[in-house]
Amino acid sequence: MNHYIPNQLVPDTAVSVAGLTSYIQQLLEPDEQLRQVWVTGEVSSASKYPSGLFFTLQDPEAKATISCVVWKSQLNKLMQLPVQGEQLIILGSIRVYPQRGQYQLIVWQALPAGEGLQALRYRQLRLRLEAEGLFDPERKRSLPTHPQTIAVVTSPQAAAWGDIQRTLKQRYPGLHVLFSPALVQGEQAPLSILAAIERVERDGRAEVLILSRGGGAVEELTCFNDERVVKAIANCSIPVITGIGHQRDESLADLVADAYAHTPTAAAEQAVPELATLYAEHRERIEALNEAVNEQLQTSLSQLQRLKNSLQRLPIDRQIRQEKQGIAWKRQQLVQVTTQHLQHASQHTQMLRQKLTTLDPQSVLARGYAVVRQQDGAIARSTDGLELGQELQIQLNKGQIKVKISEIIDTKE
Question: Are strands 240-243 and 259-261 parallel, antiparallel or unpaired?
């Protein structure tokens, strides 16, 4: 809806973004207290580039952070290089970065102040959980070879959810994916992740669970070092794969998970095999079986020919008896070997045929299921977002029908 705003209500003093940023810059940078300020905090992340060292200084108690930079020319003058987890006393000045609308602390000097509170808490928790045996390799479970249902816990707004969906669809079509949304950042994230895992447990259909997030700064990933989240993963009744997307550090969630990957895509690749690979392996087994049967047949034919040649040098009666016995024995041996190979091949082929049939979406529809799509083509998985009178298209095993919603029954708990 467009709102009409009378011209007289628009102030003449409205400024541009650049003008506002310039005004803020003029307020901050000339301030005497900000031109030379001592700041204490804990280094939560640090990255070195050709131009200098960029790091984040945080106050774990107040949940506050500030971006800092030490230019290359100043690095050798520091008493203490910023390292993640260290508590530092920083001397620097505030500068505004207009291109991003941010301010940062230009560091001149850094003095050691001991181990950071956040790092100390992390180390103590890790040692305690390790003593409890939560990280032992012996307790980790193997992943299912051919899962039919997988649960995914992540934020619906995260790019990780899209990456996982695309990877699963490409590698293993027909897979049933259960999405259990959760916050993966902020103070409410641990409780949200716990609730999401509990939903998967109550549902009971999933054979493996992927807990994922698409990367982020170290200070944004604290929920994956929360003791409640770690123990929820350890106590989960099905194997858990983490794909938090932070290559530089392993979270406690990664250490307790049955398997972990550095990206959501890699986590999805670990969860399911690639259908094309299964087809290729099946073809290789068939070819190997054919070669084995042909080799056995050729060997038997060669032996039979040698027997024939030998029999030609024996008296006719004895030759006939020995020839009949040899042929009967070879026939029996050949039939047994061939029958065994064919039985094994038939059983394996039937098993693969059944698995491939379960992956065929059309076979699901043939069992009486249907696919409900909205007018924009999106699949309706729940009543969320549906409205009375809204048109829906239902795809059946044979044909499609269009319906209108006359009643919405919400079955959520």
Answer: parallel
pTM for this model (two decimals):
0.51
**Cα pseudo-dihedral 93, 99, 101, 103, rounded to 10:** -10
Q: Classify 140 as helix, strand or coil.
A: coil
Do 107 and 94 meet the contact criterion of CB atoms below 8 Å apart?
no
Amino acid letter, 336: Q
Q: What is the DSSP string of 256-311?
A: HSSEEESSHHHHHHHHS--HHHHHHHHHHHHHHHHHHHHHHHHHHHHHHHHHHHHH
Q: Using CA atoms, how far apart are residues 253 and 225, in angstroms rounded to an integer?
A: 6
CA–CA separation, 271 and 240 (whole Å):
9
Q: What is the pLDDT of residues 114-164, one digit of tens each?
A: 666 667 777 888 889 988 999 999 999 999 988 999 999 999 888 889 999
Q: What is the pLDDT of residues 289-330, one digit of tens each?
A: 888 888 888 888 888 888 877 766 666 667 677 788 888 888
Q: Which two tokens stand for residue 411?
A: 């079955």
Beta bridge partners of 240: 209
294 Cα distance to chain centroid: 45
Q: Is the dihedral of CA 295, 300, 301, 307 positive or negative?
A: positive
Q: Which of 271, 268, 199, 189 is nearest to 229 (CA)?
A: 189
